[in-house]
Design brief:
With about 140 residues, the protein is mainly α. The protein has six helices and no strands.
Length: about 140
């Protein structure tokens, strides 16, 4: 090694740990290498963070979809339970033309639908489903 200026650094890196000696590079070059490593490390961390945020957003969207589906099923069950009463009321409108002619959209919404949904309660998800610390 003392006989020549040219040294095979690859062989030295394979045989010895050269990090404590700045990989036998000049200080300016080693500073640039460290800065580049830090930049790459930060970029990788940022990518991991963005992936985690995207995953959590997808999870929240799926949770809300499940909540909407559950509320829809609950509404269907409520209406199925009261099907006989609803059917009688609809038959009453169909058989009584005078009463059917007086119906308009506002009257149906305020009187008919409100009566069907009077006992129906919309259940909101608890904080467990919205702000869960375990995302499994």
């Amino acid at each position: 090694m003392g006989l020549t200026k040219q040294v095979d650094l690859k062989l030295l890196h394979e045989c010895f740990e050269l990090d404590p000696y700045d990989n036998l590079l000049k200080p300016e070059i080693m500073d640039a290498v460290r800065a580049r490593r830090d930049l790459i490390r930060r970029q990788m961390q940022r990518k991991e963070d963005n992936d985690q945020i995207a995953k959590l957003l997808r999870l929240k969207e799926e949770t809300m979809k499940c909540n909407i589906i559950a509320q829809r099923v609950h509404l269907q069950e409520h209406l199925a339970k009261n099907f006989e009463e609803i059917e009688k009321e609809i038959d009453g409108f169909i058989n009584n033309e005078e009463e059917a002619k007086t119906l308009d959209r506002a009257k149906v919404e305020s009187n008919v639908f409100e009566g069907w949904l009077r006992e129906f309660k919309v259940y909101q998800p608890t904080n467990y489903f919205i702000e869960n610390e375990h995302y499994d």
